[in-house]
Amino acid sequence: MSRHISFHEVKGALALEGCPICRLTAEVVERYLDFMLWERVTDPDLRREVRQARGFCHEHAWALVRAGASLGIAILLQDVLQELCTALQDSTAQQTGHARRSRRGIRGLGGSRPAEDVVNALSSQLEPQGEQRCPACVQRQTMEDIYLDVLLDNLVGKDNLAAIYQASDGLCLPHFRRAVRRAHSQEILEALLQAQLAIWQRLVQQLGEVIRKNDYRFQDEPWGEEAGAWLTAIATLVGPQPRRGTK
Q: Which residues, in sequence order, are CB contacts of 117 under 8 Å at separation 6+?
């Protein structure tokens, strides 16, 4: 994806509710899962990645569920489960061989203890292999880095996004922490901190209004933009609410 396209995506997301990086990466992951289910389930490279990752993380495994997705899910996850079955069969054979060799007799109701090396080997096989992680998580992090860099690179200089950013809901705390670490100049970092401080101060004031208007003395006052500030505060600190249900 070109930086030019990413710039306009970031700029457009700043005009919408919530953390722009959360919004953009959620859309990226949704497109990625769609493409994977409809176009890539027979791709041997993808299937190897999914097997090595031992499937998907909790969030993205359930995000796969959608109308018409049963075949794609069945193909991908059958691969994973077959590999796990092989690991269990190998472990069972190793454990049986160990028991025959050890002849340690019975210890308590459960018999002899499992061989530690066999248990460790099995545990390792049940975990994601090598550096492989949930493929959707990998895609999301790749795009997070791109969008964060585009935002940071355009907080200073001509036609910068600083004012638009400051008027937005800003970054959620997890993405703000990453942005701070990725700022590659003092000027960019100062622009980021100044804008985010103004955003959080505005939210603090709105939360103060929520607290004040819940006082019986002021409960008849009309509500304004502060009405949803308590939900905005949750999203600001941890990211947006997970989607529920299926498509």
A: none
Q: Pinpoint the alpha helices (H) of the chain.
A: 3-14, 20-39, 44-52, 58-63, 70-102, 116-126, 135-153, 162-167, 173-182, 186-213, 229-238
The predicted-structure confidence for 28-47, as pLDDT tens digits, reads as follows 999 999 999 999 999 999 99
Is the distance from CB of 232 to CB of 170 less than 8 angstroms? no
Residue type, 99: A
| Cα-based torsion angle of the residue sequence 217, 221, 223, 225 in order, rounded to the nearest 10 degrees | -90
Please say whether the beta carbons of 54 and 123 come within 8 A: no
Percent share of the chain, pLDDT over 70: 85
Would you list the domain boundaries of the chain? 3-134, 137-238
Cα–Cα distance measured from residue 232 to residue 16, given in angstroms and rounded to the nearest whole number: 13
Q: How far apart are CA 235 and CA 173, in angstroms?
A: 9
Query: What is the Cα–Cα distance from 223 to 215, expressed in whole angstroms?
Result: 13
Q: How many CA atoms lie within 13 A of 60 on its CB side?
A: 27
